[in-house]
Amino acid sequence: MAGAAANHEGRRGSGKVVVLTGASAGIGAVLAERLGAAGHSLVLAARREAELGKVARGIRGGGEAAIAVPTDVTRRAEVERLRDRALAERGRVDVWINNAGRGIDKPVLELTDADLDEMMAVNVKSALYGMQAIAPHFIERGTGHLINVSSFLGRVPLATHRSAYNAAKAALNALTANLRVDLRRAHPGIAVSLVMPGMVATDFARNALGGARTAPPAGGAAMQVQTPEEVAAAIAALIETPAAEIYTNPASAGIARRYYEDVGAFEARM
């Protein structure tokens, strides 16, 4: 495998090999297009095969066509198959982005067991499978960049009707931080990043479990809608300059600080 990696690196140049889940629409599709245009070589994953194929056909990064791998990221074996396909086709992985996710529109008191299980499977376990699949490869190489796409709502409860989604993203935030600390001790060449978008103009709400609600979330500037292009630009910049965490909305960091300074007072104002 080392020889295959060397051969691929020799042909590709400076572009990175990027595995991206949730690539068939929304932020993932826009990010795939941007990264391909920047010269990165892409391996794209999503459940919807037709939509994923359409995105992949429109991209050519690093002199190579994007590879589409239909994947149900809630199944560990399929995530491992995605990793194996990327290594077989590209020889290495430089960046792995866990972007797949799904929302819900139900407050806490309306949640069922099935609702919570679905949110945890799609938003937490899928990312865990990705982390566990790719970390050994990064450790073997001594380098790599893992990016988990979470949500600002995992930090501050500005949209309480998203309840179990917010809880799942909070769990993802914790897993990401714990992995980052663990790897930093013995493998400082591996970066682990958390991305926290706020509201983004995609079909995410329309596809949420329980049906999209029309009531706007509480909060001010942090919940102003961003475009997928703005979020994709932030993630692309993160690949170039890794950081532990980023908020894609510049106002979000200040609001999160105010929330944790006095949770009770913040929530009373909401």
Task: Please describe what this structure looks like.
The chain is of the alpha/beta class and about 270 residues long. It has one domain: NAD(P)-binding Rossmann-like Domain (Rossmann fold), CATH 3.40.50.720. About 50% of the residues lie in helices and about 15% in strands. It is built from nine helices and nine strands. The chain has helices at about 1-10, 25-35, 50-55, 75-90, 115-140, 165-185, 230-240, 250-260, 265-270, and strands at about 15-20, 40-45, 60, 65, 65-70, 95-100, 145-150, 190-195, 245. The strands form two sheets. A seven-stranded parallel beta sheet has the order 5-2-1-6-7-8-9, with helices on both faces. A two-stranded antiparallel sheet has the order 3-4. A hairpin with a 2-residue loop joins strand 3 (about 60) and strand 4. The protein is globular, with a radius of gyration of 18 Å. The chain starts with a helix and ends with a helix. Mean pLDDT is about 90; it is low at about 1-15.
